[in-house]
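Record type: ASSEMBLY
Status: queued
Input:
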Amino acid sequence: MKKSIGDNMIPKGWSFEQGLELIKKSGYDGVELWLGDVPWFQMATTDAQVRDLRRQVESAGLVVSNVSTGLHWRYPISARDPKVREEGLRIVERQLETAQILGTDAILMVPGLVTEEVPYNEVYQRCVEGLRALAPEAEKARVKIGCENCNAEHRFLLSPRDFAAFLDDINSPWVGIHLDVGNIHDTGFAEQWIEIHGPRMTRIHLKDVMKHRGRCGHQSVYTNLFLGDNNWRAIRAALEKVHYDGWLVAEMEARYNAALDQQFYDTAAAIDRLVAGRL
Amino acid sequence: MRVTRREFLARGATALAAGAWGVRCAHAMARGLGIASPANTGVEVAGASLAARVALVDLGAACCLRESLEGYARALRELGAEFVVARADKLPAARTVIIPGAGQIGEALAGEISRRLEAGSDVIVEVCCAYASPEDFEASRAALWRNFQVRVGPGVDLWAGARGRVPYVELTWPERLQVRDFSRVHPVEMVSGSVIGWIEKRAIAAVRNAGRGRLVVLGSALGPALAAGDREGRAWLGVTLLDAV
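Status: finished
Output:
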């Protein structure tokens, strides 16, 4: 398994180049690029500029592990407004295009957002239809769309079997799950999600979770690896069981308040122990 | 076999075309709204089934909610009603004409609606200008008033800043049913018509006799709920089709 971390973790005010240097120095193999979440990689970033990002990544001795985005929280493909939905689909298309340029074969998207206003059934229907339409484009690009399980945040596909049925309905090998082991909270167990989805996992996000602490003010339910309630030994065993040998991508929400670069080193060391099974 | 509307609803509106039961049940269903019952529309329906009686209008670019068109198509398929999808200028004869997601209603479309009403069709117009441009809305509003004396208000975003609101439209005709709202609604008023849909004290659907048919204007899109498999929405559509026989 290979280690990666998001470029959205690069401390504010640092350049992309400085960030890449830190990522390399702290022991990662790759970097996850977040479309729309960092100044150097926006929807308006041209193909030539994306090529330049790739050049910088490779010059730092890294590769791009995948292309992610947080834009679907604003532009969900499940929106009622057709224009918002269209923009959501366009974001996925741009992710596919840039993934090709960046030399990676996976993207992350948040598939839908259930709200008080937009009910589950509508979200489900629009997401299945949207992803069915995107699947041929993913196949053409040879890039897999990984739908992230955001369980509590998007109030959608809350169980691993729900998620599996959703992927069955889309029915394309080019659409899978980008599994976030921290997002399951107290609705289940990450190791069971790994077991059920096995080869359908496009990438894995790593973070820990404090299952019984809800979001409140500035407090986050998420924490750094090994500080929360995830059963890391079981997660490691499940990864081995399903022969997962892909990218492990650190996605830390709780940031260090001082010595910001230290989080990169600590997280890399924790991932090393997870990979080695020294738990 | 005679099936009442109540029985139809109790069956979950699963199929319209299961035998000829659907044809005879509608006559007893007219409500006290001054709406023509099927017996006095002058349209020959004896022995007919609902098959091939519905024309679903694809407005092309003037449809600003494609999923609504798809929702009606899905519901009609699941109800077992034969239907055709056609452009407004190439509509076949049909007992019920449904125009989903209408974002631009110009004089040509209004003229076609008038002809269908004169010929005895029921025409359901789903006004959906809230997702169209302000210019298209104004033009549609003017055409609806000029041709049908239907007053349509600007789109209202029901969910803007709302907390704890009830998300249902109360439809009162041809059967009292609640269906999911669709965020943006247009208030609807008709001269000599009857309000048949409400949400939060806003009238958002109405019906009136027109020509030899009936004009139904929906100010809250029903098609997306149909696409999502909303049972009550589908039941409303089924009963409305039955009532048109």
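Annotation: DSSP finds seven helices and 13 strands in chain B.
Annotation: Chain B touches chain A at residues 64-67, 131, 159, 167, 180, 182-184, 224-225, 227-230 (CB under 8 Å).
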